[in-house]
Amino acid sequence: MLDLLITNATLPDGRTGMSLAVQGDRIADVAPGLQVPARETVDAHGQLLAPPFCDPHFHMDATLSYGLPRVNESGTLLEGIALWGELKPQLKAEDIVGRALAYCDWAVARGLLAIRSHVDTSDPSLLPVEAMLEVKQRVAPYLDLQLVAFPQDGVLRTKGGMESLKKALDMGVDIVGGIPHFERTMAQGAESVKLLCELAAQHGKLVDMHCDETDDPLSRHIETLAFEAQRLGLQGRVNGSHCTSMHSMDNYYVSKLLPLVAESGVSVVANPLINITLQGRHDTYPKRRGMTRVPELMAAGVTVAFGHDCVMDPWYGMGSGDMLEVAHMGVHVAQMTSQAGIRACFDAVTTNAAKVMHLEGYGLAKGCDASFVLLQAGDVVEAVRLRATRLHVWRRGKKLASTAPDVANLTLPGRPPTTDFRRARPAR
Ligand code: FE2
Fold first, then answer.
1. Superfamily holding 4-51+363-409
2. Which of 86, 130, 183, 213 is catalytic?
3. Cα–ligand 1 centroid distance for 39 (angstroms)
4. Is 53-356 in CATH node 3.40.50.2300?
5. 213 is catalytic
6. What is the mean pLDDT of the chain?
7. Which has the least CB within 10 A, 37, 66, 277, 384?
């Protein structure tokens, strides 16, 4: 007998009337109209069953610290970094752990079951690293947390920055990070990319670097990152996060750059909520959107995913761990409003994000982890439009969260009582 059978589900690829059978922590079968005995059967009523959301770019050591010690008045990336610098000496490990655990609760409730978090390694005490390693261990039964050694203040710009980063790796941090655009010069930025990629190659680690998070079109560290990935045989193991300078680069240069990025197997993570908020702050009007060239990168064959980046921290006062909100903003900022574009933005917070994160067992095929989310939506496009309620969230066969459907009961004058699901479907 099966442990769980979900019937009458719509899958992200558009297949309807699908059943999904679960045995233990694995998907035993996926087929139309399966009729097999199971300990629990859930009728999806034609709603969307999707693999879990994944956030490939987050800062969990800073999350939920909004207002500490003060709010970012200019709204810029640089004031955010300065503000984080003011907060760091006041941080206590138990506070970081408490806030991170609270955020992970939010995440699971929204079907977000895998997060890659950068963790600041600039301070030699490595207090955030210790705290986040504890969080990783504590959430392991319900959430996959990857940690990136992130030298927030610049690995070369900070005294002892490389030693601290190496120590963080020795302590158990998974991935090598960097921030070349924050080093003192372009040359030092390029040097940091080279050294950090070499370090990753030596240690057999993945690379995920904050890369060119600036409106400066001459910030071209993505070129160096692609070159180093290829030189060191790290194809498919390197990610460039943000890459916002690409928004402002000359079109001719980008026409040369995109094939180089594709050839190097470097993936790119854009952070629509944060890029639209932090970039363009030095502009008057017109104000640049700042997000990297998502549809063009995708068309060039680059794996592009979306991250949340920040929730209620020195850089961003909003957010709730909702990756559909991220995808929704991505649709708008990248103007990916076609049906295919909206579906690509959904992929950016599911399958593409899982690919960037090298997650094993991800997906809705036979043999994959029995991890999925039932959404109050008829398909992927509707899920993004409504930022649909996550009715049920399962991880490896176990139900972790349920949320009541979003239904308004209307009693309008002159009308019989009715309900509103906001579920109007467009003609196709
Ligand atoms: Fe970031």
1. Urease, subunit C, domain 1 (2.30.40.10)
2. 213
3. 43
4. no
5. yes
6. 96
7. 37
